[in-house]
Design goal:
By secondary structure, this protein is α+β, with helices and mostly antiparallel strands. 21% of the residues lie in helices and 27% in strands. Strands 7, 8, 9, 10, 13, 14, 15, 16, 17 and 18 form a 10-stranded mixed sheet that branches. Strands 3-2-5-6 form a 4-stranded antiparallel sheet, with no helix packed on it. Strands 1-4 form a two-stranded antiparallel sheet. It starts with 6 loop residues before the first strand and ends in a 5-residue tail after the last helix.
Length: 287
């Protein structure tokens, strides 16, 4: 690392997986960080690879390469380190072998689907910027019977409670009884943007699933499961900070299987399979 690529000491501590950048600054304020044998008094100091840093008397480990994961966030978890109401957070439910990570954006407690996790603050900020231009896509179930005319204001951009939302890509997929399924795409990701925008045109969201974030997709990743994105893909899609990292096979951590809450269905005719009459007609036919 050259002096032109020197980094703040709090960031260096965070990249070593010891603490978040904010918590690293608190450690510095408490006098628990030394640089080349001297107590650090300011988090604004820049450091090089050759500098010797200790935290609470322990030498700082080598900083980890940039890493990124796909995570299928279930409903009922808060996307934050701590919750003032004592609710479960995503970090409490991640596999214990995962390193310290941070989320790229958020999903509220009642939303589910794809959440990107990273160990690098710079990558997190880049992926969250609207200027990055990555589309976030959601499958949304709403109560009501939306029409193209109702949805048109969303495509042009809408102001809700004094906050302007950019135009969205909205598709009416199907009507299912009293509910309808929509696909919504946006590039901003403001706080509860999809719910607030749909509520403004008279549609109540009763299920929201993020299915993609830029080039990364939820696909068949099970609820609560985590899969690391190969570093080669990070280099190709993002081209940030992982150029010096060796490629490693992606790791998968499957979610724990939930206990069944319904009795098993009785054996019998399955309407999703080929009908019994059709089966009888196909018997004896040559393959």
């Amino acid at each position: 690392m050259s002096e032109n690529n020197a980094q703040r000491i709090a960031k260096r501590i965070a990249r070593a997986g010891v603490a978040s950048r904010r918590d690293a600054e608190k450690l510095i304020d408490a006098g628990e960080v030394t640089l080349n044998g001297e107590i650090v008094k300011s988090p604004a100091i820049n450091v090089l690879d050759t500098d010797v840093i200790t935290v609470r008397g322990e030498p700082l480990k080598e900083q980890e390469p940039v890493r990124l994961w796909r995570y299928h966030k279930p409903i009922g978890l808060v996307t934050s380190d701590r919750d003032e109401k004592g609710r479960d957070t995503i970090y409490q439910k991640l596999p214990p072998e995962m390193p310290r990570v941070m989320s790229v954006g958020r999903l509220d407690i009642n939303s589910e689907g794809l959440l990107l996790l990273t160990n690098d603050g710079d990558l997190k900020r880049q992926l969250e910027l609207p200027s990055t231009g990555w589309m976030r896509r959601y499958r949304v179930r709403v109560r009501g019977r939306p029409t193209e005319a109702m949805l048109e204001p969303l495509t042009k951009g809408i102001t809700v409670d004094g906050e302007r939302f950019q135009g969205m890509v909205v598709t009416l997929d199907r009507q299912q009884g009293a509910n309808a399924w929509l696909t919504v795409g946006l590039r901003e990701g403001k706080n509860r943007e999809v719910r607030r925008a749909l509520s403004a045109i008279g549609l109540e969201v009763n299920r929201l699933i993020r299915v993609s974030y830029g080039p990364f997709q939820l696909k068949e990743l099970g609820a609560g499961a985590v899969e690391e994105i190969p570093r080669k893909v990070i280099r190709e899609q993002i081209a940030v900070g992982a150029k010096d990292a060796e490629d490693a096979p992606p790791k998968k951590w499957a979610a724990k299987k939930p206990k069944p809450t319904k009795p098993p269905r009785k054996k019998g005719f399955n309407p999703h399979n080929v009908s019994q009459s059709a089966r009888g007609k196909t018997r004896g036919r040559p393959k």
